[in-house]
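Team,

Forwarding the record for the chain on the shared tracking sheet. I've put the sequence and predicted structure together so nobody has to dig through attachments.
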Amino acid sequence: MVVKYHFRLYLFTFAMLCGFGLLVFRLWSLQIDRHEEFAKMIPGAKKERARIPGPRGEIKDRNGVVLATNKASFEVRVNLAEVVAEYKRTAKITKTPLPEITFEIVERGIRRQKPELDIYKMFEETISSRMREMGVHKGYPVDSLRVHYRSFGGAVPWVYRDDLTFTEFSRIAEHNLGLPGVTVAERASRVYPLKSVACHIMGYVRLPDDQRVSAEDRKGWDYYVPDDFGGAGVEKSFDNYLRGKPGVRVMQRDQRGRPVGEVYDEYQEPRKGNDVYLTLDARMQLIADKALRDAKVGRGAVVVIDPATGEVLALVSVPSYDPNQFIPSIQQADWDALLNNKTVPLLNRAVKGHAPGSTFKIPISFAGCLAGIQKSHFNCGGSVTYGNTAMQCWIQRQSGGAHGSLNLSDAIKQSCNCFFYRYGNAAGINNITKVGKILGVGEKTGIELEDEDSGILPNPEWLRAHRPNERWSDGYTANTSIGQGMVLASPLQMASVTATVANGGKSWNPHLLKRVMDRDQVVLDNPPSLRGDLSASVKPDEIEIIRKGMWKVVNDPGGTGKGAKITGVEVAGKTGTAQNWRRDARGNKVDDNHTWFISFAPYQNPKLAVCVLVQNGKSGGGCAAPVARRVLEQCLALENGYQVAIEALPPAEGHFDHIPMVQYADAGVPEALGADEDGDTGVGAPVAEPVDDTAPRVNATPNIRRRADSAGSAGSSSGQNVPQAVPVRRVGIFNRGSSQDNNSSEPSKGGLFRRLFNR
């Protein structure tokens, strides 16, 4: 019986020990093993969502040559709200008063002073001093720091450094900074590997200012890092394809607001944007660019189009610039230099309207076809009188002679002004306007470039709208018929006109987009689109009259474009010289003629249509035609194995020097062409350009790297005197530099960058 009670006692004791052991194990598990987990769950702990911008897609030529890509770079971002919170915590312990400044605001028209915490002093004492110890401090504009804090607090990180070298990055990575709000991030930074090549097409990227980053954009994000967006060129036109998809990073903070880790299950990796393939051929782009440089052209343009599709194969404007200057931001001094450069390297002359001179006789020829006068003869007696004005032909001005009776082909060959005065009036301004709309003259072609000019095709309606005190007359039609007076056309428009002649009457919309790719998948394939079809109303034999006239310009002894002749290739073309003037540095009027040459080749089954503009040249035949010859010869040779090295080019320098004639060092003297033998030297009184080249249009100001002031310079100390009043003004808070943000490509899970972010 005693044994029975002993067994029960032992069993009860064993059960008590097991229960006590389980209780101890549970307490250890909850309080020690899972301490961090429950610490995050107590009141005050929270998750914070950070937006990770997606890298932009690449821009490539039709053959896959990369024109714009990304490179890895590093930046230091600072959450200013955390800097303030840490400073307040320390100040509370040390019982130190918080630093304050005042700044001026305007409310309802009344100026008053408003106090705010001195974020500069807090930043200097909390962050900059440590950065100086590591030798990675860099100057920054203090007012940008303050404006950013006023605008966003900690919602959008302020970029303290966006130009870390790998050595500096490694130096920061070696130290466990423990600095409040400071993170080091890798980002994708835009780079243009060919430098100035196709710069006017590429454009540049920039970051949004405070007007573009709205509260709605930041909604749902604790940290909002914005995307780069296209500021100009195709970077802007195709921005919706190029921009990447943002990712998400979720950080866990404890009750004290300190980061304690990342919620990896909620991480979403950013996705790269689509790759955009252009119609450009990088080889032809380089050929055209070098053709202008080797000819010492200081201001001009070349456009090459495929006549069968309207695809733009090359589009060059000189002078040029290096778009890499704009990444991550352009120095103020460099931006000022571009704006103050009188030759205006920012201007895309290939899409800007210029007086086209005698090249405009080709659209006029089509207008005569619509009127049924294409086989008529008109007499050149040296001049034609309209009203009280005798309008001369160039031959009378040059030698006192006349061309006599001419048909359309010979008039194109001789570039006879008197013929086209009469021919244009016989065709009528209504037919000229109709042809212009089909060919894309006098209105934008629709190419994917925001800075394209529409040009001007004057007619009675246009005159009433712009010069209501004047009335249309035959004299206006005559001037329009030779591409002078109020007519303006861009090299792109004239290249498109040439392509229409070359292919027999089809007017394709010139375009730059070839296709859009998402890795190996085609997102968009951009087919050619027809603007109009002159062959529907003009017979093939009538179009051939115009084509034959252009053939004679280059190949007949009396043609004005012999400088474009290529052995073994039949080239057709048309010269043009428009008399213009500009004001020099002293304000004096000086001649600044626009010399043109439009051409296509081969004559049968044309493959290329080319337009060349040379500013301040003597004549189209002596200056622009040799450039066209160089472009056509080398571009056509590509099919026969001619090699062009794909290389980066520095910016082409501009100048105002007069160009009497273009002669390449490796080319022979053009047949029967001397400096004074090209007759197409313009006619009439020189006119001024309606848009002054010295005042370029800047559609989107880039991110400008503002100069560091004395307070934010590398040698400043936290005790340095700082102005106590900072005027409020609209400042692009994302202007890059030491105070700007940039497009970011966050690292994948794990790795050094993620560990740095977690610190």
